[in-house]
Amino acid sequence: MDKDKTSKASALQYDGKNTPKIVAQGEGLLAEDIIRIAEEHDVYIHEDPVLVDVLSQLELGDEIPEVLYLAVAKVIAFAYMLQEKAPENFINKKE
Q1: Are 21 and 64 in contact (CB under 8 A)?
Q2: Which end of the chain is more exposed for a tag (fewer CB within 10 A), N or C?
C-alpha cells in the first residue's frame, strides 16, 4: 500500500439474489482493518481506486446504484470464477 495516499476500502455483500450492498467501508487504519479481516477470511480483494472512490460515497447498508452494476458484476463474476463457484440457477451454456 502506498503510504503517501490515504488507503480506502469498501466491502460488498452479495447473496446472489439481491443487489450488492455496502457492508463495511473506511479510510486509513479502518481500511487496513477491513482488508486484513477480508484476507483472514479468504475474501476476494479487488483493487480499483476509481471504484472504491465511488463506493466510498455511499452509506453503509446502501445498495450499489444501477450505474455501477456492470463494474461490480465483473468483480463478482471474477471472484466466483476464482472460487470455482456459480450463482444459484446459473446455466452454463458451454455444457
Answers
A1: yes
A2: C
Q: What is the pLDDT of residues 40-56, one digit of tens each?
A: 999 989 999 999 999 99
Q: Give me the pLDDT at residue 79, please.
A: 85
Residue type, 73: A
DSSP category for residue 74: H
**How much of the chain exceeds pLDDT 70, in percent?**
82
Nearest to 63 by CA among 36, 3, 23: 23
* Element of type H or E holding 21: strand 21-27
Give bridge partners of residue 11 from the DSSP assignment: 24
- Phi and psi, residue 78, nearest 5°: -65, -40
CATH 3.40.50.740 fits 8-82, yes or no: no
C-alpha cell at 90: 446459473
pLDDT of 81 > 50? The answer is yes
- What is the domain partition of the chain in residue ranges? 8-82
